[in-house]
Design goal:
Elements (H helix, E strand, L loop, with lengths): L2 H16 L7 E3 L8 E3 L6 E3 L1 H7 L1 H19 L9 H10 L21 E5 L5 E4 L17 E5 L1
Parallel strand pairs: 1-3
Antiparallel strand pairs: 2-3, 4-5, 4-6
Helix pairs in contact: 1-3, 3-4
The structure holds zinc ion (ZN) (2 copies).
Length: about 150
């Protein structure tokens, strides 16, 4: 989905669910890590985490957009636009937005293992990187079937 499509989608949800136009900018921001979306008070723009679309699908992202639009419309109307405000809670319930700026599962917790070992072919010198220790006698070189030797990187 492009930013233009997202913009049209947000405008559409705004009219349909809030009866009010969305007059600012909506765009994807791939650098959002822990939240599904964000509303910017200074610019009135909305950013949506594109990873949400892959992880949860359009129905969930629509709820996130509604959540951000609650911030948006309440803020512009000078009503309680923060999560703890009764205005916010009531409007969120009314339009069926997600409770939180939903986080992705396990974001930031997933550890990427570094390559710590390499298998080197004793015949053609091809190198195979490995993250975990392996028994070199159980493998052969994929190119020449030569014997492999395990070393640390
Ligand atoms: Zn929020
Ligand atoms: Zn080889």
């Amino acid at each position: 989905m492009t930013n233009e499509e997202l913009q049209a989608w947000v405008e559409n949800i705004s009219l349909k669910s809030f009866g009010l136009p969305f007059r600012h900018k909506a765009k994807f921001n791939a650098r959002l890590r822990t939240t599904g979306g964000r509303y910017f008070m200074k610019t009135h723009n909305i950013e949506i985490n594109p990873h949400q679309l892959n992880a949860y699908g359009e129905a969930e992202v629509e709820k996130i957009i509604k959540h951000e639009l609650c911030h948006y419309h309440l803020h512009l109307a000078k009503k309680g636009y923060q999560h703890r405000d009764p205005d916010f809670k009531a409007l969120l319930k009314q339009v069926g937005g997600s409770r939180y700026c939903k986080s992705l599962p396990d974001q930031g917790k997933k550890r990427v293992l570094p390559y710590r070992y390499k298998l080197v072919c004793q015949t053609c010198k091809t190198v195979y990187m490995r993250k975990r220790k392996v028994d070199p006698r159980r493998y052969r070189c994929g190119k020449c079937r030569g014997e492999l030797k395990l070393t640390t990187v």
